[in-house]
């Protein structure tokens, strides 16, 4: 598992004090605002100390230590910010998307492997996992009634799908 995860991208300058606008890549902008330090690289060698951060419309406005003018802030545009996973506390049953991608989706009862998670999308009530098996793709709701166990360390998601959830069309692509 990666220690440093992408969490935001600086997209614009805000005001005259050197603040920046960051497009957040997490479920809740408040999560991004909890960090005292983020990083400009995936190795954690280039820290960015956060003086303050607050949600604003669809971005997070933040002030980085040592960035005090719009000109300095402008040099940070399009930079990706990384978080240290050790500095984050996730609630029970919540996972980083990067940890879910690549998990084998396995029937909890039969042991049948349906494929691997290739993408996670959020559409409100629950996330939707895209499960890929060769050229076939299935959408699977990440709802508690279908998921028996998420085993990140073991590399699998144990599921109890309803009938037809992983049934594709016929071999030539026609629907049955």
Q: Can you describe this structure?
A:
- Helices cover 8% and strands 44% of the residues.
- It is mainly beta and 176 residues long.
- The chain has a six-stranded antiparallel sheet. The chain has a six-stranded mixed sheet with strand order 10-9-8-7-12-11, with no helix packed on it.
- The termini are far apart.
- The relative contact order is 0.15.
Task: Compose a concise summary of this entry.
The protein is mostly beta strands and 176 residues long.
Task: Label this structure with key terms.
176 residues; mainly beta; 3 helices; 12 strands; 44% strand; elongated; disordered C terminus
Over all CA atoms, what is the radius of gyration? 20 Å
Please count the helical segments.
Answer: 3
Per the principal axes of the C-alpha atoms, what is the gross shape?
A: elongated
N-end to C-end Cα span: 41 Å
* Fraction of residues in H or I helices: under 10%
Round the mean pLDDT to the nearest integer and report it: 90
Largest sheet, strands/sense/barrel: 6 strands, antiparallel
| Unreliable spans | 169-176
Structural class: mainly beta
* Order of helical and strand elements: EEHEEEHEHEEEEEE
Beta-strand share of residues:
35-45%
Trace the largest sheet across and list its strands. Answer: 3-4-5-2-1-6
Query: How many beta-strand elements?
Result: 12
Question: Topology, please?
Answer:
Layout: E1 4-14, E2 19-24, H1 29-33, E3 37-39, E4 47-56, E5 59-64, H2 70-74, E6 80-84, H3 97-100, E7 104-107, E8 113-122, E9 127-133, E10 136-141, E11 147-151, E12 156-159
Parallel strand pairs: 7-12
Antiparallel strand pairs: 1-2, 1-6, 2-5, 3-4, 4-5, 7-8, 8-9, 9-10, 11-12
